[in-house]
Amino acid sequence: MRRTLALVVLTLFALTPAARGAGDPLDEAEAEHAAALAEVAVLTGRIDRVRGRFEVLRAEASQAAALVVDAYRAGLEVDERVGAARDALAARTRAVYQAGPAGLLEVMLSAGNPSDVMMVQRVIDQQILGDVDEIAAALDDASEAQLSSEEIERRKEDLRRRAHRLEPMLQELAILLARADDAARRAGQDVRALDRERRELSRAAEEVADLGSLALGGVDQSKLLEMLGPDGGRGCDIPEDLEQTGKGFSGVASWYGWEFAGRPTASGAIFDPRLFTAAHKTLPFPTFLHVEHAGRCATVLVNDRGPFIEGRVLDLSKGAADYLGVGLNEVSAEILVPAG
User: Fold this and answer.
1) Which CATH superfamily, name and number, covers 224-338?
2) Residues 241-272: pLDDT tens digits?
3) What CA–CA distance (Å, rounded) separates 215 from 204?
4) Greater confidence, 71 or 339?
5) Most exposed of 183, 236, 311, 339 (fewest Cβ within 10 Å)?
6) Cα separation of 277 and 319, whole Å?
7) Contact (Cβ atoms closer than 8 angstroms) between residue 256 and residue 315
8) How far apart are CA 276 and CA 302, in angstroms?
């Protein structure tokens, strides 16, 4: 009995870590596993804390971006009103010039009595000066817009600062996620939650890039727009800076407008619904398209992604769609390339 008990004690002693020795492979594996689990816990805690700070700053940056977009949109609307006012003023000026002093005098002399003279004068005033109040109001809007440009720049600077603060946090989260993934795999843990975190981080990085682009005023596309020709893409003639390829597509086109004005497009340029631009799902940036519908033609610059509705092949800016008469209609499009 004593001999049996001694054998049991000796066997248990031999199975203890101390008895196995400091370099025992099983002990090392257990220690590495425990260390990996502890590292995962620490890193997960740090990820949660950094992500929490990041989300707060991202929300603040998104609010700042909304203010910048509102400012851009207001500026575009004022530009449109001022353009219409200038056109109206030019039309009135032409009317006065074409009538000339002799023409006005002839009308006045044809009046039979003083009351007729007053009536003629009112008609002349109405015809030549009828929209002066509206024109003056639009020009006042333009002056106010000019005065508010400093406020717009302050908003953009605020957005730049906020976007700049987000960038190092994105880098820190990427590093922490990589380390946590490595530790989780060493611990034999499921890494699907970390994969979801990485996908969310990728989306957040794209959003931060858009915020940065908006803060900088967007990618400059003025040189590309110049290639649409002096009429900004209007007409069936191929612009002289572009040439045909004979390759294209057809299908249903839709449009998008002022609700997206001031926001960055997928190319980084700021969307202006008055310009002749378009969105396509896959065509590279920049691509030029010669679009035809119901006997009308326009050349557009592809600078955005879409449409994201099944069965549609092209999303035109409101300006291009209005010119072509497109609401939700079949169009044909030919790809153009820079000449030479």
Assistant:
1) RlpA-like domain (2.40.40.10)
2) 999 999 999 999 999 999 999 899 999 999 99
3) 16
4) 339
5) 311
6) 8
7) yes
8) 9
Candidates 263, 336, 257; CA nearest to 300 is 336
Buried b (16+ CB within 10 A) or exposed e, 167-200: eebbebbeebbebbbbbbeebebebeebeebeee
277-279 and 329-338 beta bridge pairing:
unpaired
Nearest to 165 by CA among 199, 198, 212: 212
Determine how many CB atoms are found less than 10 A away from the CB of residue 31: 11
- Rounded to an integer, what distance in angstroms lies between the CA atom of residue 219 and that of residue 212? 11
Cβ neighbours of residue 299 closer than 8 Å, sequence gap 6 or more: 228, 229, 233, 238, 239, 242, 276, 288, 289, 290, 291, 336
Q: CB burial class (10 A; 0-12, 13-18, 19+) of residue 70?
A: middle
Give CA–CA dist 108/105, Å, rounded.
5
Q: So what's the pLDDT on residue 340?
A: 81
Which positions ≥6 away from 38 have C-beta within 8 Å?
none
Contact at 8 Å (CB) between 299 and 336?
yes
H helix runs in the chain, sequence order: 2-15, 17-20, 25-109, 114-129, 132-147, 149-186, 192-215, 222-226, 318-324
Q: 3-state class of 248 per DSSP?
A: strand
Paired strand residues for 243: 337
Amino acid identity for residue 103 in this structure: G
Measure CA 115 to chain center.
61
Distance linking the first and last C-alpha atoms of the chain:
103
Give the pairing type, strands 312-317 and 242-256.
parallel
Give the residue range(s) of CATH 2.40.40.10 domains in the chain.
Answer: 224-338
In angstroms, the CA 213 to CA 207 distance is 10
% of the chain residues with pLDDT over 90: 58
